[in-house]
Design a protein that fits this description.
Largest sheet: 6 strands, mixed
Structural class: alpha/beta
Shape: globular
Helix content: 40-55%
Strand content: 5-15%
Number of strands: 9
Order of helices and strands: HHEEHEHHEEHEEHHEHEHHHH
Radius of gyration: 20 Å
Number of helices: 13
């Protein structure tokens, strides 16, 4: 058995090189110095605007909880919170035991976007573009995590908060919650990648309606257009009761049962299918398949003949 396990580990390392090469290309930052982006420079500027925090709890269940914590400002992102988020995403990228992620706001509201104090201070186009690139990098990395993620939306998700919900694989909405892309009221369009992701989620026509009309999306409309994947306390959620966080954990648990390497492999093949060309996605799927074929979970399943259960 020891020799078999060692042989599988060696084969896994060899087979995964091609997959990791392509996936690492996906996971690299969108913007670099070639685009006039200096990560440390914008971090320093953002840290000049403190307040709130982004809290991360990694649980033995394999589910992490990421909390947007700035309740005195409806969980708006200060500059330092933007940096916090990037650091927490970095931790999650390296969490080998992880399977799922729940993103929530503190004090029963999700997030109201950017703190206006920071926005006013960096309102010149150059700094605004740098902040935009920083948050696009971070939220793209969040969506590309090898974890199945869900945004737990209570209260309001406005502006950048609405964009944040689109950086998760799923969205669960509380009965009184609202998602609203309010950018046009601020004379803006989404800048954190929310528009591009929204088109993928709800289609271009619905995206035009949500952005052009700054429509308030309640749970009913969210389910209708595909922005919401379930509602808390409703039949769609099958949540089992409890606090909103407990309901979200119950909801996501059906999609992350099993060993972490298998769940992460599932996310990787879906990620490659979404972001790579078909030929590259097929090659990546083959390589990721090779990392789990003959592995512990596969061998256990074969021994128990569980395929048709």
């Amino acid at each position: 058995m020891v020799l078999c396990a060692l042989r599988w580990q060696l084969q896994k390392s060899s087979r995964s090189c091609g997959a990791w090469g392509r996936l690492l290309q996906i996971q690299s930052s969108l913007y670099t110095s070639v685009h006039g982006f200096n990560q440390e420079e914008i971090r320093e500027k953002l840290l000049a605007f403190p307040g709130g925090s982004i809290d991360l709890l990694k649980q033995d269940s394999g589910i992490a909880v990421l909390t947007i914590n700035n309740p005195s400002r409806m969980n708006a992102f200060s500059g330092s919170m933007m940096v916090d988020l990037e650091e927490q995403v970095n931790q999650l990228e390296n969490w080998t035991e992880g399977k799922g992620l729940i993103v929530q706001g503190a004090a029963e509201t999700f997030c109201s976007g950017s703190d206006l104090n920071a926005v006013r201070a960096i309102s010149n186009p150059q700094d605004g573009m740098k902040m935009c690139m920083f948050m696009q990098n971070t939220l793209t990395r969040l969506l590309r995590l090898p974890l199945i993620s869900v945004a737990l939306v209570e209260g309001r998700a406005l502006g950048g908060g609405a964009e944040l919900t689109t950086a998760c694989d799923f969205r669960l909405m509380a009965s009184d919650s609202v998602i609203q892309f309010v950018h046009k009221h601020m004379g803006l369009v989404p800048g954190w990648g929310g528009a591009a992701r929204l088109v993928h989620i709800v289609g271009s026509q619905n995206a035009l309606k949500l952005l052009g009309g700054a429509l308030k999306v309640d749970p009913k409309l969210g389910l209708q257009i595909g922005l919401a994947d379930g509602t808390l306390g409703g039949s769609q959620a099958e949540d089992g009761g409890g606090t909103p966080l407990q309901q979200a954990e119950h909801w996501i648990s059906r999609y992350i049962k099993g060993p972490a390497p298998v769940i992460q492999a599932v996310k990787k093949v879906v990620l490659s299918g979404r972001e790579l060309s078909l030929s590259e996605a097929l090659r990546t799927e083959k390589d990721v398949f090779g990392t789990v074929w003959g592995g512990p979970a596969n061998m256990q399943a074969l021994a128990s003949k569980s395929k048709h259960k």
